[in-house]
């Protein structure tokens, strides 16, 4: 396997009301809205990207928030938990903070790590994980969530499957991950040296129902490729292995290919470049609606269909 991902690029989920979605991820979780754009396949809805200051790969949770989306069903063939990395001694602070926001949470210990499990307003399962070795990534610092407690980026995702063997084969042979640990019906795989942002857990639940992707569930999980040449060669290798892979798609801020792992979860390989600074300055990320060139002629119609977002001033420090 010549191609190995260095870790998670982003996770994309389905949300409900976009204003409620932005309020929760900006004000309650303290992330930054680094890009406000639309679903390129359905420009009547937003595509909102939340992450660190510049939206570096490995920090991003993104949403397609449809106001009238039905509630999804969590089950096999899905990524069922998206976990963020926080400092080791911050879980107590986060439990109080979430409680003050009316969010119920549960402290758990798993795989040598303490975690706080909770759900967003649409029911998406999230976790904050305190990795014992720490996380050197710089956080986005806001008045609501100070830097000493702030989210550092993605920690891991959990894929739920009815059986693990074929999924494990795709992770190791298709993405270049390594098997790291097993705990009852949970199998951990890691990219590179592992740690926050480079981990996936495979949870085997043969009696669980098949998941239904809609509001409150993950749409796909994206893994990193360093550049387009690597991505293109990687695509050829997946095709040679008999995997059904899309053509390379232009997502403006990265290039993407998509395929399903055998357990049913939609995966993506996304390039690290060009990044979110190609069409607006760092201090203004997320402030204005950005459209790809082929949608610009329809800007007036698109903007009229989208509800206004109430962004906190600190999302764009130039305002303060």
UniProtKB/TrEMBL annotation:
This protein's record includes keyword Lipid biosynthesis: no
Sequence ranges assigned to domain VOC in this UniProt record: 7-131, 153-272
High-level lineage: Bacteria, Bacillati, Actinomycetota, Actinomycetes, Pseudonocardiales
Record keyword Transcription regulation present: no
Superkingdom of this protein's organism: Bacteria
Organism: Saccharomonospora piscinae
Molecular function as annotated in GO: dioxygenase activity
InterPro entries, A to Z: Extradiol_RC_dioxygenase, Glyas_Bleomycin-R_OHBP_Dase, Glyas_Fos-R_dOase_dom, VOC_core
Any Pfam family the entry gives: Glyoxalase
Keyword list, A-Z: Dioxygenase, Oxidoreductase
Protein name, entry field: Ring-cleaving dioxygenase
Signal sequence segment: none
């Amino acid at each position: 396997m010549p191609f190995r991902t260095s870790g998670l690029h982003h996770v994309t989920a389905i949300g409900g009301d976009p204003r409620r979605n932005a309020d929760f991820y900006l004000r309650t979780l303290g992330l930054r809205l680094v890009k406000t754009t639309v679903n390129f396949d359905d420009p009547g809805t937003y595509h909102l990207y939340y992450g660190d200051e510049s939206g570096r790969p490995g920090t991003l949770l993104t949403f397609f928030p449809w106001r009238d989306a039905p509630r999804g069903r969590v089950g096999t063939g899905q990524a069922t938990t998206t976990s963020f990395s926080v400092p080791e001694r911050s879980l107590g602070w986060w439990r109080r903070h979430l409680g003050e926001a009316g969010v119920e949470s549960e402290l758990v210990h798993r795989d040598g790590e303490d975690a706080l499990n909770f759900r967003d307003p649409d029911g998406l399962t999230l976790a904050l994980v305190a990795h014992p070795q720490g996380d050197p990534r710089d956080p986005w610092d806001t008045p609501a969530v100070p830097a000493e407690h702030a989210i550092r980026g993605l920690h891991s995702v959990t894929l739920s499957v009815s059986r693990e063997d074929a999924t494990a084969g795709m992770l190791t042979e298709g993405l270049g991950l390594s098997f790291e640990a097993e705990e009852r019906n949970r199998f951990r795989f890691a990219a590179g040296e592992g740690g926050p942002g480079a981990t996936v857990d495979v949870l085997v639940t043969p009696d669980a129902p098949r998941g239904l992707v809609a509001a409150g569930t993950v749409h796909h999980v994206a893994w990193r490729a360093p550049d387009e040449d690597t991505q293109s060669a990687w695509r050829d290798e997946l095709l040679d292995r008999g995997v059904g892979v899309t053509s390379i798609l232009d997502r403006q801020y990265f290039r993407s290919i998509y395929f399903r792992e055998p357990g049913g979860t939609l995966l993506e390989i996304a390039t690290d470049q060009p990044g979110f600074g190609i069409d607006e300055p760092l201090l203004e990320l997320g402030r204005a609606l950005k459209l790809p060139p082929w949608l610009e002629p329809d800007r007036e119609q698109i903007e009229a269909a989208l509800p206004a977002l109430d962004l906190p001033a600190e999302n764009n420090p130039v305002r303060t």
